[in-house]
Design goal:
374 residues; alpha/beta; TIM Barrel; 2 domains; three-stranded antiparallel sheet; 16 strands; globular
Length: 374
């Protein structure tokens, strides 16, 4: 295994670990801000780092379309191109197999896409996806797969999962093993326990540096997602990192860590920041609401981000109503800061064996809700 993972401690099923990559270490549990097109939207790279994020996510499909993987490679790789010196994980393009269903055609060898940018035709195969990720110089490369939709019949989920397992094997053969770089397999099978078990066994036989769980957070609901994790996570190798793809809200992260997940990514904190939504210790706020227009308090008095340290809710309300870019920047920073604060809190609680108390306090504070200004 070229990508090292050290398990530093546990509290129940929850794990405290460390991943060592070619571009630095990642303390787990970890949340990866999404930088789909080589940028975390509304954030400078150094601002992302100041939140405590150690790894970001890029996307094979979108970077293939523009500016092109070969161009990024010629310019020194994605780290240099986007001025992010730390680790990068790249999604394989598999999610776009689902999200761009009207623009693609699947066959046993891969997927043919019509570009949503200019209508040009592109081909992604397992080997080409791996090649693009190598050109980008991703520390963690993801296997090319088909992310299933929701709802889905078991027979369709089975066929999709087995195609993804075939692609995973082809991608493993195409991967160039180098010190500090790793390849993750992706467990599929929707919410069907037997299919998840079959997928885990197939990936284990191939052998990967880490294992992701895909095909969740696509509409099945938190209860069903957690039930699927309860059945799937214990089957994964204990000595490899575990990554839950595309998740999620703060309570989703906490519940998944409690079940043994090490890594997360989601567009939610950045997308919410661009639409006037703020995540806080007492739930979610909509800064467009009129009740904030005279409120001199910060979003969250316990947060050290610039939005909370330097600005009032009233000012942020004004920025969002005036559609000023600064509003999106400040709220995105706040949301990413809050997500990283959750990860720090979870890591510390696992280290001290106090995860149960930490989660109880988290749930109590979330349940209290935001208190309006007098």
């Amino acid at each position: 295994m070229s990508l090292s993972f050290e398990l530093l401690g546990t509290d129940g099923a929850a794990r405290r670990g460390r991943i060592a990559t070619a571009h630095g270490t990642v303390e787990t549990p970890a949340f990866m801000p999404v930088g789909t097109a080589g940028t975390v939207k509304a954030m400078l790279p150094q601002s992302v780092a100041e939140t405590g994020a150690e790894i970001v996510l890029g996307n094979t499909f979108h970077l293939m379309l523009r500016p092109g993987a070969e161009r990024i490679a010629a310019l020194g790789g994605l780290h240099k191109f986007m001025n992010w010196p730390g680790p990068i994980l790249t999604d394989s393009g598999g999610f776009q197999v689902m999200s761009l269903a009207e623009l693609r055609k699947i066959d046993p060898e891969g997927v043919t896409f019509r570009s949503p940018v200019d209508g040009s035709q592109h081909r992604l195969t397992p080997a080409r996806s791996i090649e693009i990720q190598r050109l980008l110089d991703a520390d963690i490369t993801m296997s090319f797969d088909e992310c299933t939709t929701w709802p889905i019949e078991e027979a369709a989920a089975a066929a999709s999962m087995r195609l993804s397992m075939t692609w995973a094997e082809q991608g493993k053969r195409a991967f160039v093993d180098r010190p500090g770089y790793g390849l993750f397999g992706i467990v599929q099978g929707s919410v069907f326990p037997a299919l998840r078990e079959e997928s885990v066994k197939a990936l284990g036989a191939i052998g990967f540096d880490g294992y992701a769980i895909g095909g969740l957070a696509v509409g099945e609901g938190q209860e069903t997602m957690f039930a699927t994790l309860d059945r799937t996570v214990p089957m994964l190798p204990a000595d490899r990192p575990r990554y839950l793809m595309g998740v999620g809200r703060p309570a989703d992260l906490v519940g998944a860590v409690q079940r043994g997940i090490d890594m997360f990514d989601c567009v939610m904190p950045t997308r919410a920041g661009r639409t006037a939504q703020a995540f806080t210790r007492r739930g979610e706020l909509n800064l467009r609401n009129a009740r904030h227009r005279d409120d001199a308090r910060p979003i969250d008095e316990h947060c050290a981000c610039p939005a909370c340290r330097n600005h009032s809710r009233a000012y942020l309300h004004h920025l969002t109503r005036a559609e000023e870019i600064l509003g999106a920047m400040l709220l995105t920073w706040h949301n990413l800061q809050y997500y990283q604060d959750i990860m720090r809190g979870l890591r510390g609680a696992i280290e001290t064996g106090s995860l149960g108390h930490w989660i109880a306090a988290f749930e109590e504070e979330q349940g209290r809700g935001d208190i309006p200004a007098l």
